[in-house]
Design goal:
6% of the residues lie in helices and 40% in strands. It is mainly beta.
Length: 235
Amino acid sequence: MRSVYPVTRPKRRASFALMLWSVAALVSSNGVGAQEVLRPNLADIATGDGWTVANRGATVEAQGDRAIITFDARPGAGTAWLNNVEFDTGTIELLVRGENSPGRSFVGVAFRGVDDETYEAIYFRPFNFRADNNLSRSHMVQYISHPEHPWNQLRQDHPNVYENSLLNPPNPDDFFRARIVITNREIRVYVEHDTEPSLVVTRLKDPTSGRVGLWMGNNSGGSFAELVLRPTKAP
């Protein structure tokens, strides 16, 4: 059965730190190199518990043991920021779905966010996954660094540097998995089971920690079924 809830203002709860994510320790066979895995509860976006939503409305649908959060489309970028988590370097994984709607489907993740206008992001243009021309196919995945470096400025000044095609584009109307590996100076983007990155860029901001959140571009909605954070440093 589908359950739909409106987004409300964030609530503060004493148990927030315990409820926000499930944490698992990944330890190598010699007991060295433990890494925490943070799995925020996307269903909480619908109640505003542990999340701050900017310029979007959202509904949540329960499918088995998984919650799918879907955002509406509005002018301007929209984000769902995860509260009380600072992300510096590490890996971000997400299960995301856009749509094959030219110019109206931009979905991804923002990180190292200072506010709703200042952040870096990796996002996808699913409507280009099945494009019939080379130019559009080269615009499937994009890096941006707002506000100084939006997509159009990067495309004009650095063509084919901060965006690229995908090695194996998925169905534009289906969920797909993306893995984004972030270091102090470089970002690598992998899609589905690819072992080679579809995009490798040098970051345009100085190393610093900041907020992380789900991201949608101008006039774009989107759906998300999973967000996994593997920070290099403990949060």
